């Protein structure tokens, strides 16, 4: 299957491209630069030059491929306004790809975050939140899944707060970056709030399984660790970097501080049983031991 992949050179995208190649698919990766194109071609994938705002490029690539996996997001959390722009950009791109696939029956896999449900681990049956700082992403994913009613085999892989590889990535990666800059490995409150996590290679396997097998309009959880306490994450980071571990105010994390403060464990029992997805790579706390001082 020829698969158009946005975000193909990022942490998750690189793992997805490798997973597709290992299972006989031909990835076509969106590349914004010569360096990104060269990275894709070096591993045996093809490059499609353009960015997430080049809607005509997205439509053409999606229309010519046998399926699409959408991963690209600018990840600009510097301000509420910047985050809103990133979300609007992604929503427009997702819609353009969906329109290009109407009536084809082709698979179209997008991603979102796992929802938080007070008092328990969220499941695949729980709705995404339609309020809060990233609610626009939830609305965009919900709209994309609705293309199932227009002849597109849409599905959504819900990613946990940390998708990691070799000690990098996700919320834990942001905590590491902030700890390097500030000299403190911080956590909000008492640090007992839990974040789900998954290794990027395990997440990539689920994207491939959804592409191949997921029924139209369905959502899946790429969760290995159901919920690691944030203080435990901060303690590993602090030890690896040799910096103190302490409580910090939520506003230290800007527009996503409220998300950082929330308890948000998630389950993947239905995904594992239905799609036969079995994570096999290191869990988060073990993987963080690879952080370089």
Automatic annotation (TrEMBL):
Gene3D superfamilies: NAD(P)-binding Rossmann-like Domain (3.40.50.720). SUPFAM superfamilies: NAD(P)-binding Rossmann-fold domains. It holds the Pfam family Epimerase. InterPro entries: Epimerase_deHydtase, NAD(P)-bd_dom_sf, NAD(P)-dependent_oxidoreduct. This is SDR family oxidoreductase. Residues 3-216 form the NAD-dependent epimerase/dehydratase domain.
């Amino acid at each position: 299957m020829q698969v158009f992949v946005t975000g193909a050179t990022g942490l998750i995208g690189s793992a997805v491209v490798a997973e597709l190649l290992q299972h006989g698919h031909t990835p076509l990766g969106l590349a914004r630069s010569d360096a990104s194109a060269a990275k894709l071609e070096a591993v045996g994938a093809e490059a499609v030059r353009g960015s997430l705002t080049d809607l005509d490029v997205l439509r053409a690539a999606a229309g010519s491929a046998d399926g699409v996996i959408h991963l690209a997001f600018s990840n600009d959390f510097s301000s509420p306004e910047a985050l809103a722009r990133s979300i609007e950009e992604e929503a427009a791109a997702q819609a353009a790809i969906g329109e290009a696939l109407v009536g084809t029956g082709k698979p179209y896999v997008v991603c979102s975050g796992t929802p938080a449900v007070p008092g328990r681990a969220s499941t695949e049956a729980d709705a995404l939140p339609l309020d809060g700082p990233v609610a626009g992403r939830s609305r965009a994913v919900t709209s994309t899944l609705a293309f199932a009613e227009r002849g597109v085999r849409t599905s959504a892989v819900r990613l946990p707060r940390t998708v990691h590889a070799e000690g990098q990535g996700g919320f834990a990666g942001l905590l590491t970056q902030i700890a390097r800059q500030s000299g403190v490995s911080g956590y909000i409150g008492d640090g007992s709030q839990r974040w789900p996590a998954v290794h990027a290679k395990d997440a990539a396997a689920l994207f491939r399984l959804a592409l191949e097998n997921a029924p139209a309009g369905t959502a899946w959880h790429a969760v290995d660790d159901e919920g690691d306490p944030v203080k435990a994450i901060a303690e590993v980071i602090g030890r690896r970097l040799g910096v103190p571990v302490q409580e910090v105010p939520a506003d230290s994390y800007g527009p996503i501080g409220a998300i950082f403060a929330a308890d948000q464990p998630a389950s993947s029992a239905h995904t594992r049983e239905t799609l036969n997805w079995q994570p096999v790579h290191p869990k988060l706390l073990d993987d963080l031991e690879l952080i370089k001082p």
